Structure formats: structure tokens, C-alpha cells
Amino acid sequence: MYVSRQIGIKLDAMFPRYEMTSEQEIKPHTRIIKVGERVRTKVFVNNKPNWKLGVVTQKLGHLHYIVKLDEGREVKSHINQMQKSAIQKEEEISNAPTSNSNLHSVKITILMIINLSTLLLLKETG
């Protein structure tokens, strides 16, 4: 020890003072996307990226997937170029049950309010 410091020599570089962990042992957390999940995937058209909606049809490994786009074609996509999506397909939205009777009653109520307000305006001016 010299002035409260350990003097290093060339042999010290060969034998580290503390245990080192291998970079291979540290595994990064990868996202998991299941088959059948709705995703947005990056598709390149004319060397420009576009995000298209689709459904995962097949998993090819840890990072690659086959995605069937809403427009009908299938593309192979890396997980880095995919995002989970909550946006439903247009057909699914149109098939969703809607209550037309509630919408109709709201329209009638709005028309009645408009008619009453015009009658009140006519009484005040006349």
C-alpha cells in the first residue's frame, strides 16, 4: 500500500478483484406476442415505413412472426417492428351489436328540444 492506494501491476489485470458476470448470462426481456393477437406492423412501401394493422398467424422463433394484414397479404415481421394494438378490424366493429332504438330516441329528443326552443322564441318575439 502506498498513500492509502493499492499499487497495481500487470498481473492484476489477469486476475480481477471481484467476480465478473458474463454478458451472455444477462438475458434481455423480450416482448411476447401470441398467435391470434391484433398488432400493428411496420411495412415498407417504396422504401417508406407504413404501419399496417393485422393479426399474428404464426410464430417463427423468438423474434419473428407471420402477420396477416387487414388488406389480405401476409408478411414476415420482426418483433422490433411490431406493436400490440387494441384497434379492432372494421368488420368486427360493424358486426358489433348496436342499439338503433336508443339512437332513434335520442334523435327524437333532440328534435323535440329544438321545436320547443323555437316555439319559445316565437312567443317571446310575437
Task: Give structural notes.
This protein is of the alpha+beta class and 126 residues long. It has a domain at 38-87: SH3 type barrels. It is built from three helices and five strands; from the N terminus they run αβββββαα. It has a five-stranded antiparallel beta sheet with strand order 4-3-2-1-5, with no helix packed on it. A hairpin with a 2-residue loop joins β1 (38-45) and β2 (48-59). The longest helix is centred in the last third of the chain and has 26 residues, at 100-125. It is elongated, with a radius of gyration of 32 Å. The chain starts with 9 loop residues before the first helix and ends with a helix. The model has no long low-confidence stretch (mean pLDDT 79).
Q: Helix tally?
A: 3
Strand order of the largest sheet: 4-3-2-1-5
| Shape summary | elongated
| Gross CATH architecture of the domain at 38-87 | Roll
Q: What string, H for helix and E for strand, traces the elements in order? A: HEEEEEHH
What can be said about the biggest beta sheet?
Answer: 5 strands, antiparallel
State the separation between the terminal residues, measured CA to CA.
Answer: 107 Å
CATH class of the domain at 38-87: Mainly Beta
The beta-strand count equals 5
Q: Please, what is the average pLDDT?
A: 79
Q: How helical, in percent, are the residues?
A: 25-40%
User: Radius of gyration from the CA trace?
Assistant: 32 Å
CATH topology of the domain at 38-87: SH3 type barrels
Class based on secondary structure composition and strand pairing: alpha+beta
- Give the DSSP E fraction (strand runs of 2 or more residues): 25-35%
Instruction: List unreliable stretches of 5+ residues.
Output: none
